[in-house]
Amino acid sequence: MSDVLNPAPLPEGLGIPTEDWHQTPGSVRRVMLTLLKRLETLEARGNQNSSNSSRPPSTDAPSTKRQRRRQAAERRKPGGKRGHPGHPQVLLEPTATVALFPEACACGHQELVALTPYHTHQVIELPCIRPDVTHWLLHQGQCLSCGKLCKATIPADHVSGYGPRLTGFVGEMAGIVGASRSAVQDLWSSVFGIPLSKGAIQKLVDRVSDAIIPHYTAIGEVARASLVNYMDETSWLTGGDRRWLWVMANPLVAYFQRHPNRSKRAFAQLIADWTGVLVSDGYLVYQHWQGLRQSCLAHLIRTAKGLTESIEAGMARFGARGHAELQRLCHLGTERPTVGQ
After folding, report:
1. 200 with 220, same domain?
2. In what order do the strands lie in the sheet with 277-280?
3. 57, 50 Cβ separation under 8 angstroms
C-alpha cells in the first residue's frame, strides 16, 4: 500500500512514461532501481581513468593514453611556449680557438686592412672518453725476523674498485634518470667501453644511496618545517613486492618515503611532529587530519568530471556545473581578474 501512495521516483533519462512507472508493481520498481544503481556503479568503474578519478595515469588503457597525447599535441605547438623562460646557447670557455679571415673581396681585391673579429661561432664536442684506470699492485714479502708472509692492503677509499665520479654517474643514471640496470650496462659498454655487471651496478647504486642519507635527512627537516605541505601516496614495486611511496612536498623540497603499508602509521612516520596545513586528496587518513586541510582541486575536478558521465541526468548536470565552477576557480587563481569577476 505504501508503494502505491509513495511510489519510488522515476529516474530521469529512461524514457518511461510516468503513468507506466506508477502502474509498475513496487517490488519490480525496487529491483529495477537496484539494477540501475548497480549498472551505474559498474559502468563508472569501467570508465574510470586518470582524468575522471583518482587513479594514476600509469593505470590508463593504451588507447586512452594515445588519445590524451594526441589531444595534447593538437593543443600545443612544437617548441617553447609563450612566457616560458628562454634557454639560449651561451659561450663557454674555449679549449681551442681558430681564427678565420676573409680570402678576398667580392670585387676581386685580396688586400684587406683593419681586420677585427665580428662574430664567434661556437662548436661543442665531447672529447674521446677514455677511463682513467689505476692498477694498485699489491706486494707481499717475508719477514726476516719471524718468517711470516706480510701482504699490502688496499686503501680504504679504493676498496670498491670504482671511483667516486663513476659511482656518482651510475647513481645519476639509475636514480634520477630512471634507467634500468640493463640500460646502464649498455651505456657503459657502448660509450665508455667499460663492462659492468648488473650486480656491480646495484652495489654502486647502494653506495650512492648511503652517501646521500644526510641530504635526505636534511630534506625531511625542511619539509617538516614548512607551513603548507602537499601529501600523496602511490603503489611502488620493489623487487617484485608491493610497497607504497609517500611524498610530502612544498615549493622548497619534495620529501619521499617508501613504506610497506598505506596506513595511518605510515602517514605519521612521514610527517613526524609536523602540524601545518595539509593539501591532499580524499584518502580517509587525510580526512582525519586534526589541523587545517585543503582538498586538492585537481582531484575534485576529476571527481566532478566523473559525475558528468553519470547515467542519471540530474547527477550529470550537477557534475557539469561543479566541474565548470572548479575550473573557473582555478582560472581566477592564476589569471588577473577582469571587471566584474
Report:
1. no
2. 254-259, 241-249, 228-238, 277-280, 293-295
3. yes
CA-to-CA separations, 200 to 181, 197, 203, 204, 250, in angstroms, rounded: 10, 5, 5, 6, 35
Q: Which of 236, 245, 307, 237 is nearest to 51 (CA)?
A: 307
Coil, strand, or helix at residue 61?
Answer: coil
Which value, in Å, is the radius of gyration of the alpha carbons in the chain?
A: 33
Number of domains the chain is built from:
3
The verdict on residue 309 lying in a domain is: no
Residue 265 belongs to a domain: yes
Residue 114 lies in a domain: no
- Nearest-10 crossing angle of helices 198-211, 164-171: 100
Are 307 and 258 a contacting pair, CB within 8 Å? no
Same domain? 218 vs 180: no
The reply to whether 182 falls in a domain is yes
Q: Domain of residue 182: give its range.
A: 161-211
Please say if the pLDDT value at position 68 is more than 70.
Answer: no
Q: What is the pLDDT of residues 3-37, one digit of tens each?
A: 555 556 776 667 788 887 788 888 888 888 888 87
